[in-house]
Amino acid sequence: MSATAIDADTVEALEDLPPSAKLVAKVLEYNDTLTQSELAEETLLPARTVRYALTRLEERNVVESRFSFSDARKRLYTLA
Q: The whole model's pTM is what?
């Protein structure tokens, strides 16, 4: 489990986001790529809260998403 360094621009983008979004970003910092359900499991947040946090993070270009090759119904999330 190695942490990916969060740069100053990312920290600034996170400043006024809700705690749930900050937690999701922190978990992604330590886990390179996770699905929404894996994020919910890691953060112990409800799936709906994780979904909202990911939306806010994507709006700020903090998180990138792509389709999973193994299951096209799922999206994989990483820090941008």
A: 0.86
